[in-house]
Amino acid sequence: MTEFFQSFGMSYEWAWGIATIAGILLIALPLMLAVAMVIYVDRKVLGAIMLRRGPNVVGPFGLLQSFADGLKVFLQETIIPSAANKGIFLLAPIITFTVALAAWAVIPFADGVVLADINVGLLYILAISSLGVYGVVMSGWASNSKYPFFSAMRAAAQMISYEVSIGFILVCVVLWSKSFNMTEIVLAQKGHGLGIVNGFFFNPLLFPIFVVFFICALAETARAPFDLTEAESELVAGYQTEYSSMSFALFWLGEYANILLMCSLCTILFVGGWLPPIEWAPLYYVPGFIWFLLKTFGFFLAFSWIWATVPRYRYDQLMRLGWKVFLPMSLIFVAIISGYLMATGHFVK
Amino acid sequence: MIETLAFYLFAGLVIAGGAMVIMSRNPVHSVLWLILAFFNAAGLMVLVGAEFIAMLLVIVYVGAVAVLFLFVVMMLDIDFAAMRAGFIKNFPLGIAIAVILLAELGLGLGAYGSGGIELGSPDSAAAFQSDVSNIEAIGALLYGRYIILFEIAGIILLVAMIGAIVLTHREPKPGARGRQDIGKQISRRPEDATVMKNPEYGEGIEL
Fold it and tell me: How far apart are CA A34 and CA A101, in angstroms?
């Protein structure tokens, strides 16, 4: 895109700056639109599973429900509790939202369609998603209220626990694809299953790891059944309890942007990103972008399906699952996979 | 030009963050400023081309260590008056540390001014190759030339981990309540826990 702006006779620095800002807008604005639509889908799926209609009043089929909600919170009054630590209280939702957007910089939407194609893309995602916990912890502490504080402590422990397993799972994927670069990880999955299917998903050694990753993604985004940070029966609304108006909306948008990020990570790491599922020439006529969106949306449907189906975990069960089941399992799989790859000469150039 | 701007932005924020760590009165604010300093230090690493180290800095220090810091500091019940009372008592110690750090800084500047340190000729395995990526270069060094040091570090960490587990592990008292056997809980079926009764009208049931 830099070349395109340079063709208008701009200097390299200006063209680069404008191209980067345009790229950021091209990701952030459709992402916000996607978040609005995905919230609608989430509520519609939940309604269908519970034999309700879901949102159906605003716009055709209720499609504009999220926008109406957005307008509503925008018009509400921002209430800051008098006992709150004002600066941090207002900073927390901004951090959650910014961090949720920042991670999208390295996600490849199609071949070469990525804002920053950096060498350490996967590590960047890990680093940014580990920042997400600060928004929650800061809001919980700054609210100066006991339920948000409980929620913040739960969130901190939960996110750190599951990040450890996610780290080991990513190691397995990186070992197989020999790169931390997201684009190369996707390309390494091309024709992975005997040259017929694209994706690590179809690899018998990586499939269990995929299942663990999916469950960790649920826990990392605090989705049901691991939504203990906002368990409404115990903690009112968790760390968001004291928030209103736009500061609440920022949490809400950030949360769904994170869920979409985890869905797209599942897509990129295990199901072959923008590649069609089957290695068959006519399927390549469909733009890679469409495949990427379809797969991500599929994972999101699984997220809502799980939300509607599974009861919430107890907190000690959550910790046990993270530390005593997933951590040993992912460690063992790192050993098995690296052993297998060494034995089959995967790393010989 | 962009690099220069970014450098001064990151460096300024690291210094400002570091200053605010010691200047803010609220310890939670101190930790948050420390996190800002860490984060901008990672930005500086990216600028010098050490993106792998930068990401590790964020993942390890910002993502894990500082969260635990924050966790502990948030739960402390701090009496600010008592904290300030210790100021005079610890003042000489603080001055001593400040003098030592200043001396080290002067020494470092002097050493920097006197030219680079001769580290010997690089051997072939560890020679810097500009065409390999950051991660591969570090991997080649870490698992080749410095494998012994790497493994020693690993053993030290393992020992520390076992130490932490030994310190915090408590054997449950026999028959103590509150200890849960998750396997037993999961394997419990409705048939074991409930009975269906169809009592006659006006009669209770015997359980």
Answer: 13
Say if residues A169 and A216 touch (Cβ distance below 8 Å). yes
Looking at CA atoms only, how far is residue A144 from chain B in angstroms? 11
> Which amino acid type is present at position B190?
P
Question: Model ipTM?
Answer: 0.79
Query: What tokens appear for A51 in the block?
Result: 């034999």
Q: How far apart are alpha carbons B68 and A161 in whole angstroms?
A: 12
DSSP assignments along A311-337, one per residue: PPPPHHHHHHIIIIIIHHHHHHHHHHH
B138 interface with A at CB cutoff 8 Å: no
Of A302, A311, A299, give the one whose Cα is nearest residue A228.
A311
Which one-letter amino acid corresponds to residue A52? R
**Phi and psi dihedrals of B34, rounded to 5?**
-60, -40
Q: What is the pLDDT of residues A76-127, one digit of tens each?
A: 888 888 877 888 888 888 888 898 888 888 888 887 777 888 888 888 888 8
Contact by Cβ (8 Å): A257, A100? yes
Across the interface, do A156 and B67 touch by the CB < 8 Å criterion? yes
In this complex, the residue of B2, B180, B182 whose CB is nearest that of residue A13 is: B2
Q: Is A201 helix (H, G, I), strand (E, B) or coil?
A: helix
